[in-house]
Specification:
Elements: E1 3-4, E2 19-27, E3 36-39, E4 43-49, E5 54-61, E6 68-75, E7 84-88, E8 94-98, E9 101-103, E10 107-109, E11 120-121, E12 134-141, E13 147-153, E14 160-167, E15 170-173, E16 187-195, E17 201-208, E18 216-224, E19 230-231, E20 237-238, E21 248-251, E22 266-268, E23 274-281, E24 287-295, E25 298-303, E26 324-326, E27 330-332, E28 335-342, E29 345-352, E30 358-363, H1 367-372, E31 382-387, E32 393-398, E33 414-421
Length: 422
């Protein structure tokens, strides 16, 4: 199987059990940028930017209260793209990649398994020429437990998606060609790959022509049994690199049609069919959430929300303060649920699992909602969370994104906390 090792923010989780909360460190709070959490059977590792903006890793053994800290030679500015990715490989070595938005490789690896004090910088993974303008680092694992690293090479509007695979103490290309090629005219922004109940990997993405967020278009899809050989939903092969004119287009949303990158998550219905959630403008110009499902040899697109007077007309460059966030559809009995957060309020959109007919919506309680009662969040700040598959989580407050621009004032650092189920 393949799994994403360090999800950016599992903001949809709402565990009912009581939680134990402990402080880790004081951290940068000038803007939101994704931290990382990796919890193994023996250790908990947390990657973050400290109060001085320095890339840092804290680690402790499970059952211990003593943290080991290490500071790495990299400092974040005001860019919310500069997320942290971490993973532990089969030999127990910790890998950290961070602080890259069209920047050269920033990557560290331990010399001794589990000892974060031995993290050392690696100057090159595979190809120095393809590691000079990197963005969106992610670590994944395949069915054999091999560690995979993917990233975008090149800037928005001219990017390529590159996959590397760990090879002993080094790395090599998983596939010779980039997965997707924008031909110097566009970039692809991915959600996934996601392992489906069919044992295949499923991927959704949008194309974006320029750094202007309004230039997203053409929701697309591909699937693969092994991350090497790819095909469309109709079983026809997709030669690599995938280009726009050959892609499986789910919905031909035009430029300035109200669709944005990173808001196209993919889930599965009760029969295991892929379902992609996304948003675009409706005929009246309102922003609505839609779902797309492959059935009867075509992609069927259905409106999931019915909002009046809500229009998110985003655009421009830099990190946006998202008015709408969409999570992957999930099955609950005969109902398909699409969790969203609209203007800070969490909502479940409810659909009939068989017909995709809209049933209605209801309030949803997030992990951040549950923690807010115990963690003080200063006025104007938001509580960010990342949750591991083991049930561990981290939480910290920051100001929202500011289009990657400096603010007039520097806020006080905030406490980064570990959250564990009792």
């Amino acid at each position: 199987m393949l799994r994403l090792l360090a999800p950016l923010a599992l903001i949809w989780a709402a565990p009912a059990a009581a939680q134990k909360i402990e402080a880790i460190d004081r951290v940068w709070a000038g803007h939101d940028v994704a931290f990382a959490l990796v919890a193994t059977r023996s250790h908990i590792h947390v990657g973050y930017y400290d109060a001085a903006r320095q890339l840092s890793v804290a680690s402790r053994a499970r059952g211990s209260s003593w943290w080991t800290y290490t500071r790495l030679p990299s400092w974040v500015g005001w860019d919310s793209h500069n997320r942290i990715a971490m993973a532990v490989d089969a030999e127990g070595q910790l890998h950290v990649a961070a602080n890259m938005h069209n920047d050269p490789l920033v990557y560290f690896r331990t010399r001794l398994p589990g000892d974060v004090r031995t993290l050392a910088r690696v100057q090159m993974m595979v190809d120095a020429a393809a590691e000079r303008s990197m963005t969106y680092p992610e670590f994944l694992k395949d069915a054999g437990g091999r560690l995979i690293f993917k990233y975008r090479d090149g800037g928005s509007g001219r990017g390529r998606e590159i996959y590397n695979v760990a090879d002993g103490e080094g790395w090599k290309r998983l596939i010779d060609a980039p997965l997707v090629e924008g031909e110097g005219k566009r970039s692809a922004y991915f959600v996934g790959p996601v392992l489906g109940p069919d044992g295949w990997f499923h991927l959704s993405w949008v194309w974006r022509d320029t750094p202007d967020a309004a230039t997203n278009h053409d929701l697309s899809y591909a699937r693969s049994p092994d991350l090497v050989h790819w095909q469309r939903a109709d079983d026809t092969p997709l030669p690599l690199p995938i280009r726009l004119d050959a892609a499986d287009i789910v919905d031909p949303v035009p430029v300035r049609g109200g669709m944005i990158n990173n808001n196209t998550p993919l889930g599965f219905d009760a029969l295991g069919r892929p379902v992609i959630a996304f948003h675009k403008f409706d005929a009246a110009g309102n922003t609505q959430v839609f779902v797309a499902r492959r059935q009867e040899r075509r992609w069927r697109v259905t409106q999931a929300s019915d909002w009046k007077g809500f229009r998110w007309a985003f655009g421009g460059m830099g990190s946006l303060d998202f008015r709408l966030r969409v999570a992957a559809p999930i099955v609950a009995g005969s109902t398909l649920i699409v969790p969203v957060i609209r203007d800070g309020k969490a909502i479940d959109l409810l659909l009939d699992g068989e017909t995709l007919a809209r049933i209605g919506e209801r309030p949803r309680v997030t992990l951040a909602d549950r923690l807010a009662a115990r963690i003080g969040v200063p006025a104007g700040m938001q509580l960010n969370t990342v949750e591991d598959a083991s049930g561990a989580a981290i939480a910290w407050a920051t100001l929202p994104a500011n289009r990657d621009l400096p603010r007039e004032d520097v806020p006080e650092p905030q406490v980064l906390r570990l959250v564990l189920p009792n």
